[in-house]
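Minutes, project check-in
Item: structure for the 254-residue chain
Input as provided by the requester:
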Amino acid sequence: MNSVERIELFQRELSYISDNKLKEFVKILLTHADDYFFEVPASSSGKYHPKFALGNGGLVRHTKAVAYFTNELIRPSIEFDKITRYEGDCLIVAAIVHDIKKQGDGLEGHTVKEHPKLASDYIWKMWEKYGEDLLEEEAVGYITEVVESHMGPWQKPCPETRPELIVFYADYIASRKEIAGLSFIDNNDNSEVEAYERPEYTVEKYKFDFGKTKGLTIKEAYDREPGYIRWIANKEGFGNVEVQNLVKEFLNQL
């Protein structure tokens, strides 16, 4: 598989990333990855991954699943200002390359226990060789710390920060045998997806990202479901205080 084919294979996952320099860095990492990364199953034993992650190309399909779940999990973190959009982009990078050294340097033919550290070393090596003009050292450190802790409680270092836990949980969910499959993997759909951006929090421009009024402005939602909007305003302990305050402001303007 040549470099163009490698990058096209991850077109969907690259589209999760907003920052163009981070996208270019991922392309470098994919271009110089060991050939086996694109060929082997996610699990050499078949014991710890769902069927779609087994067989030829299974590790790629597993990686795509981890990137998908990471992208979904960063949405609430960005929404509530727990992480920034750039930090979220770094987590997508970490998800794409977390298993890039799953079988070490490709000589073992099976999963290598120290593959998180090997992946981290590989990322640093590629940054020093090709990426210093693209990324600050701090960003590489952020990515590699997440990669090194993605095995969770089964290997040190364990994930401790919110970003580390996001990728760990994404990997954990993607590895459950009960998952039958993801539609875009089953359909071999590698089309680009619009990267998630934090909504603009003003009464006029905010659009709901949840519930029965998803995609509507507050006014549009009120015109359609006034009772639901009043419920948001008055609900004690409503999860998104910022949205609740916007709704209250809107109702006060009526």
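Outcome recorded: Residues 126 and 186 are 32 Å apart (CA to CA).
No further action items on this chain.
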